[in-house]
Design brief:
It contains 11 helices and 9 strands. It is of the alpha+beta class. The strands form 3 sheets. A 5-stranded mixed β-sheet has the order 3-4-7-6-5, with helices on both faces. It has a two-stranded antiparallel ribbon with strand order 1-2. A hairpin with a 4-residue loop joins strand 8 (404-407) and strand 9. Helix 1 (161-173) crosses helix 6.
């Protein structure tokens, strides 16, 4: 992108000709809960996510972000520089690091085991659990009627039996701090060992483990970011890591899966904790923070999504490898439903705050964007049970599968076009950043019919019985989840 002899404008040339000097570590915590109103999650044993070690470049600007008032079912004017026709594919910043397609060549050194304990003390990234995610730039000025104080508690949305069952299931199954600590310790250890091979690579924990939508049995998704002037071949890198992982005492059962996004799957030795590691699939980092912003925008989001994922898994429609819905697809379906109600529970954060979810911002700065999103106060005060029944009704009787595309980015159903992405597809769910179809795994009519039938049957049963056990064995699910403790 730039001549080899020249440094990009505004960036220094490095004296060693290869790598930038080590940046000062900045830790971000992920608790979108310091602001008032509905962002205060008052439920027992609230999980606190740890700060994550990101190393963004030092900012050269002292200009604070613009003031943005609290949203109340309102629409923030879009940034005039935002174009809805942005390029679909994203590139990694190519100026910070050289290509790392092969192991680093270094001067000979005394032999040592790949996971040899370092003499220097290692920094722990699992600290300050009780610090809240905050931004000093917000003054909270609701634009509409304030939500009563009673609705700052999840129990306010659980006055009926069905809603109470949903809260019970959520509180028993949600990912705990100890679960995340365990994943983070393994991530930090892996990053140190991987950097013996790819010196400036960075390893990020993504997906449900980090977006607030995980449960105790959730596997961990990892993204290894290797920046350079040319993308390294994922299969080459993963194959190299698979060989290297054989010498790690804490890793077992490595398996290279040559999917559209290739992954290296492995387990923490002696446990049932499974990891999926990809190379440079940075859209996963971006949508982790987008989904996290939605997850903490309203108290009801996380319980709704957890219950629906458990329901779909129990009814065998939540497995993309078997031609049904991925968990990511289900999450987007839930968010879309909540955005399209007469009184929306959620807005479109990308539409209303495009500058906070810019698909082109450097990956190290992705966590900064959500800090500038103010609290959202919905006028919709439906109970959890009412929303669950409404979700099933929407996809059983209202949504037009043959004519519509689910778009969380636009907070509406888009008409199907004749583009290759949507034609001859049974279910169309738009990926918020890349805008491709995340429901493409559903490619058999029999599987599609089974999915529709499950929505219809569960809606028929639940609207009459108002008992979660009628569509999901709550106690059995809780017991299974508890076995992961």
């Amino acid at each position: 992108m730039y001549p080899r002899s020249a440094a990009p404008r505004g960036r220094p040339a490095y004296s060693n000709g290869l790598y930038p000097p080590p940046p000062v570590t900045r830790c971000y915590d992920y608790n979108h809960q310091s602001l008032g109103g509905v962002n205060s999650f008052h439920v027992p044993e609230l999980q606190r996510l740890p700060p994550y070690e990101w190393n963004p470049p030092r900012s050269t600007s002292n200009v604070p972000p613009p003031h943005t008032p609290t949203m109340t079912n309102g629409r923030k004017r879009q940034n005039i520089e935002y174009s809805p026709h942005m390029v679909k594919r994203q590139r990694l910043d190519s100026v910070s690091h050289p290509l790392l397609g092969s192991p680093v060549i270094q001067a000979p050194s005394p032999p040592r085991h790949l996971e040899q304990v370092r003499a220097e003390s290692s920094r722990s990234s699992i600290t300050s659990y009780e610090r809240s995610y905050s931004s000093p730039h917000f003054d909270i000025h609701p634009q509409g009627p304030a939500v009563p104080e009673s609705f700052n508690s999840l129990q306010a949305y659980a006055k009926d039996k069905l809603s109470h069952q949903m809260v019970e299931l959520f509180e028993a199954c949600q990912q705990q701090s100890s679960d995340l600590e365990r994943k983070e310790r393994c991530r930090a250890r892996l990053q140190r060992d991987i950097q013996d091979i790819y010196a400036v690579a960075r390893l990020y924990l993504t997906g449900s483990s980090m977006n607030g939508l995980g449960c105790r049995s959730s596997d961990a998704d990892l993204c290894l970011v290797i920046k350079g002037t040319k993308r390294p071949d994922p299969i080459f890198v993963l194959s190299h890591l698979q060989r290297a992982f054989r010498s790690l005492s804490y890793v077992e059962r490595t398996q290279l899966i040559r999917a559209k996004v290739p992954i290296l799957r492995f387990r923490e030795r002696g446990s049932d904790l499974e990891f999926d590691l990809n190379i440079n699939n940075t859209v996963g980092i971006r949508n982790t923070f987008l989904l996290r912003s939605y997850a903490y925008a309203d108290l009801r989001i996380r319980p709704m999504i957890l219950v629906i994922k458990k329901w779909a898994r129990h009814n065998q429609i939540n497995d993309a490898s078997k031609g049904t819905l991925s968990s990511y697809t289900l999450v987007l379906m839930v968010l879309h439903y909540l955005q399209t109600l007469k009184d929306p529970v959620l807005p479109s954060l990308q539409r209303d705050y495009p500058e906070c979810f810019n698909p082109f911002v450097d990956i190290d700065m992705v966590p900064e964007g959500p800090k500038r999103v103010p609290p959202y106060v919905s006028r919709n005060q439906s109970s959890l049970g009412e929303l669950l029944v409404g979700f099933l009704r929407y996809y059983a009787t209202e949504f037009r599968w043959d004519k519509q595309v689910i778009s969380v980015r636009e907070a509406r159903a888009l008409p199907k076009t004749n583009s290759h992405e949507w034609t001859n597809k049974y279910i169309c769910v738009e990926e918020p950043f890349e805008r491709n179809n995340v429901a493409r795994a559903v490619h058999e009519k029999m599987k599609f019919d089974a999915i529709k039938a499950e929505f219809a049957e569960s809606y028929r049963i639940l609207k009459d019985r108002k008992d979660l056990n009628s569509i999901l064995p709550v106690r059995a699910v809780i017991n299974k989840e508890s076995s992961r403790r």
